[in-house]
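step: validate -> pass
step: tokenize input -> pass
step: predict -> running
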Amino acid sequence: MAALAAFVLAAVLGVGAYAFTASNTVKPVHAGLGDETISGYEVKEQEFIFGTEGRDIKAVKFKLSAPASAVDAAVLDAAGNPTTAEYEGNKCVEAGNDEEWLCTLEKEVANESANQRLYVLAVEHGAVTIE
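step: predict -> pass
step: emit ->
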């Protein structure tokens, strides 16, 4: 009888332990390495908007070759690479659809140089972050 009770107790404990492990679930996850081509945008149909005296550039409107979720722009008065400061405070908003953008410059840029350049940062998904 003691042997039968021990067997029943062992069976009950075994089923109880199985019940606890059977109730655990692990959701599927993705892990691994992937790659994709990063291609730039073609900026076209640039339209510069000047301040009241007609000398300084205060905004620029343009179209991108593909949709973008976020855009930032800078106009430099000389050739070179823009720094974070040239982008700071500029506001770019969609102007019709996600391929057309209007960027208002925080500081108007003097239109006195033959080396002026328009720089556009754009991303298809997410936000433009400049550090």
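step: describe -> The CA atoms of residues 15 and 124 lie 54 Å apart.
step: cleanup -> pass
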